[in-house]
Task: structure prediction
Amino acid sequence: MPSSDRYSLIGGKHRKIKISALVVLLLAVGIGIGILLGYLIAFSIHYEPEPSCGSPCQDADPTVSSKLMASMEATNIRGFLSDLSSKPHLAGTPEDFETAEYIQQKWLDQGLDSATIYPYHVLLSYPDDTKPNKVQILNDDGSDNYTCVDMEENLRPEDQNPNIVKHFNAYSAIGMAQGDLVYVNYARVEDFDYLATEQPTLNLTGKIFIAKFGKIFRGNKALNSQERGATGLILYSDPADYGSDDPTAKVYPDGWWLPGTGAQRGNLHVSDYKGDPLTPGYPSNDYMSRIDMEDTYLPDIPVQPIGYDDALAFLRELDGPDAPSNWQGGLGITYKLGPGFTSRGRKVKMDVHTTRERKWTYNIVGFIRGAIEPDRYVIVGNHHDAWVYGSVDPSSGTAAMLEISSAFGKLVKSEEWRPRRSILFCAWGAEEYGLIGSTEWVEDFAKNLGARSVAYLNIDQAVNGDWYMRAKSSPLLYQAIFNAAKKVTDPSDADKTVYEVMVERNGDYDNPEIPYVSNLGSGSDFAPFMYRIGVPGLDLRYTYDRSLGISSYPLYHTAFETFYVMDQFIDPDFNYHLAASRVMAEITRDLSDALVIPFNCQDYADRLKYAVDSLKTSYQQDMADNSINFESLDSAVENFTASAQELYERTGEVDRENPLAVRSINDQLMGIERAFIDPLGLPSRPFLRHIIYSPSSTNYYASASFPGIVDAMFKIDEDPNQDERWKLVAEQMSVAAFTIQSAASTMKDYQL
Result:
């Protein structure tokens, strides 16, 4: 594509044009006269906006909300999902590019002002078709006793597609490992702590580990195993985490539960830097320098996923002591720790040839220009790549997003309405490999996005169950979520709203009269916006009943995650997709069209106090024993709370007929999340820059409040250099206090 097109949405590309000195002089004179004339006549004319957009101080049209919702239909979403999940479309493949083109064309057809593809050349990873990955049990003479399958079994026509990628975990090291097997539960830090304290004679060094998927990010499992001396790691989905105790429950293709050959594909990109591993901190454009492969923060050991049928063949032969009761799983055997097998001389062999190679990935950005504040962006996004068919992850979200964009496009195309602020619909590439597409785009346009973005709204997995709508969010967006959820009927009960069902089935721990909203954590494309440049984010989806006790929807990242499963078992009528779409559309409309941005800074103050109280519960006594107190942090939160109250009151009293006053208030509201960004980042995690929230250092899926402090306190008693560690704790306490004080100052009126 022409280079000028690539920069058309966010910023223009300078062109070198040769002009004579005379022309330059004439232009300068003309511009000067124009400015003077404009100044002289400014007092005699009014601002005349586009006919469809109203005056600069006009508040949102209350009828637009109902028009948007009425125009959305479940059958449309079903059609989008059928198209999107009709074939495997792994990042970096021709089918992935075809998906990008499909989304681009839909946005152009729907009436968006533009839809542009942004390519990036990034490091991806694939199994080697000429050298299959193998996990085996060898007899004492080296002959093959058992070999794991490398694909799901054929249970429906979709399972026979030749483009289904074989079982693999992206970015595994290439290598062969052979030796005794040890069972390490979920390969969490606490699991290895148990082995160290309760099984001190069990030598882990040089062993191959087998661990269950679930509880924490698989990349953390690989890192933890590598640090404990493993030469290889086998991962599998245990029926206790991805199956049901109900004897009537049926596995695919007769139900949504996981069959024994299903294996969870996924990446092992565990660094705090998400994005292209070769260009940390910078966009992976062709002109950008790349670091050497050995300098990337990727695993040094081979890692391979298998199905639980194969895992049973390994675990039922394990020798050694019984694993503790809370390590037992659902395979109908007594789980033992190892090392080695009861049949002496048998060993495990891993032979992994997973590649690391540069490929193209594609972001698609659809643009609706704002009528009054086009330089303010409300961004709605989801990734489009999938490990195989991806009917849940991510295509349920993309199908919903396409119906949302269609509803907005109809109003814009008819010239009936145009939002006050610009709306960007974004479909990201290579998210499954570590949030690559969204991170590269944020890096590419960080200056503009950091100054102009109102919020980032994520809709990855719009539906993976039918129990209630789960929300993760920055505290600034709580009220926007609640207000939208109150306007949409819940599919489970025609007499209740989405909000009411959220309260009933997922009420807040401290205030059961409102829904519980969790912190964002990571694992999807809101992360670079929130943690790198301070753009408040949210992530919404309908999900399953947590009392099922499963780690994820059962067919997660397997070849069995097909359109058939969604259409038959998860959301047959697509009414949950429709409800999710309507809630997200209403949040988008509210943020893009309200005269005053609907952020509630008081909710942030409440969450800060809650986070500090949690810190005190965990660490106050230990800190006091080392002469560290909470006085500065408490004072900062008090000042933030007072400033939040003041800004809240001024927001309600702002002169809504004065565009400069409104713009000033909105700028302050937009600056709150950004005020928590520290350009130095967290200790040892410089690409995570949000001082209040970040992904956990021991589980990238989870969220940590005050991550710098929590990381400094982690296993502090085991550090041989106590003085330095406690110095780091004191430093992080002061950084947190300073950051909150600074954020409080940004909410004050006029003065510093």
